[in-house]
Amino acid sequence: MKLTILGGGGFRVPLVHRALMADHSDERVTELRLHDVDRGRLDAIAAVLTEQSVGVAGAPRLVVAEDLASALAGTDFVFSAMRVGGTAGRALDEGICLGHGIIGQETVGAGGISYALRGIPVALQVAEAIREHCPEAWVINFTNPAGVVTQVMRDVLGERVVGICDSPVGLARRVLTTLQDAGLAPADAGPVGLGDSRVRLDYLGLNHLGWLQGLLVDGTDVLPSLLERPDLIESFEEGRLFGTPLVQALGQVPNEYLHYYYFTREDLATDLAAENPRGKFLQQQQDGFYAAVAALDGRPGAHALWERTRMEREVTYMASNREAAGGFERDEADLQTGGYDQVALAIMHAIANDVPAELVLNVPNRGVIPELDDDDIIELPCRIDASGIQTLPTRGLPDHARGLVVNAKYVEHQMIEAATTGSRTAALRALLQHPLVDSFAVAQRVLDEMQAGFPELDYLA
């Protein structure tokens, strides 16, 4: 099989490559194509992958594709991991937002809206190119904001587009491990995410806005056993992040990104006090990495530089949220992989080898959440195999989540309208209605500064 990664110069691509090299199935990826608009980044990551594959029998053949058409022609899977504006764009979004006293994270709030307004036009262009050069390919979208980008790509390509995120399955695995360690769930239940596992998830929401409502092992929900034990709640990452009082009040475990909604003041105060906010840190770190690989000028050492930089990135992931929650370190197991590489590999396995997988995916609503349109992309457990994707039962949205989800989907609709029609008014409505933007005047000023800072937003009238 052939796999094309769009955004192939991205820092996390070696994680996907590492997963592919460990795959020994009959139908596995034998050719990996990388495409990126930044040739310097592309060459750096190609150097990392070349070193990573030394001595590995059956490693995929690496192809660096300079143009989109050759990257796509005849490929079987397209993994979209683009970042329009790069890490510099993320840092600029964050700086603009924090300068006006609002959350600046890249996928929620005003930062997420700016990211979407830059990314949607490019995603649509890429979707048209896929329709022309590889119409039978499956598209696995990790480009953020994942729900919005998945939705607009499906408008062009239809059923062969699925959005992924590693957060929900990672959350479920941490909860299951906690219960198993406490003797409250069978140790042999099997891993989360495989079709033959005895574990089933009850999870529902939107990308970066969902809740784990149940964790069933052999048909019995073991999540209540966790909820009644404060010691267990505060022994894994999300439990420590949100704290026992909130988790017990909800009766569910929120996705980690909901921290920005439930603890807005605390997160904002931490970000405003930081000398080096997350976006700026990543820009400096990754710029340094790419420059260091370029300075090697072909000599060995690219993979070691990447691994050292990756670990630093993982250690500092959501560091400001953890600081706002009282300060704690990430568990060692959560530092080893980004997670989404395994999700992508499971999807390809399921389709190519007809090995069923059960994963939390971004797919059309189709009546699951009655308040949303059928074509709206939501995030929930699905079974995927060679025949396609089928959603699995959930208990529906809890009352406390309904308003947040409906409002967030309205904001997404306004982003899409702005990006597809050039309506600045729609962009302003998206900012105005987002709960993390608390003033119309601020929404206007933020949009003005984003338009001034990003040539990609020149299309807004």
> Strand-residue fraction?
5-15%
Q: Looking at the structure, what is the overall shape? A: globular
- H/I helix tally: 20
Secondary-structure-based class equals alpha/beta
Q: What is the arithmetic mean of pLDDT?
A: 93
Strand order of the largest sheet: 3-2-1-4-5-6-11-12-13
Computed Rg: 21 Å
End-to-end CA span: 44 Å
Oligomer type: single chain
The helix content, as a percent range, equals: 40-55%
Spans of at least 5 consecutive residues whose pLDDT stays below 50 are none
For the secondary structure, the number of strands is: 13
- Characterize the main sheet: 9 strands, mixed
List descriptors.
461 residues; alpha/beta; nine-stranded mixed beta sheet; four-stranded antiparallel beta sheet; 20 helices; 13 strands; 15% strand; globular
Question: Helices and strands in order, then pairings?
Answer:
Layout: E1 2-6, H1 13-21, E2 31-35, H2 39-52, E3 61-64, H3 68-72, E4 77-80, H4 86-99, H5 109-133, E5 138-141, H6 146-157, E6 161-164, H7 167-181, E7 199-206, E8 209-217, E9 220-221, H8 223-227, H9 230-233, H10 237-242, H11 244-250, E10 253-254, H12 259-262, H13 264-273, H14 278-296, H15 302-315, H16 319-324, H17 340-353, E11 357-364, E12 377-385, E13 388-391, H18 399-421, H19 424-433, H20 440-453
Parallel strand pairs: 1-2, 1-4, 2-3, 4-5, 5-6
Antiparallel strand pairs: 6-11, 7-8, 8-9, 8-10, 11-12, 12-13
Helix pairs in contact: 1-2, 1-17, 2-15, 4-5, 4-14, 4-20, 5-6, 5-18, 14-15, 18-19, 19-20
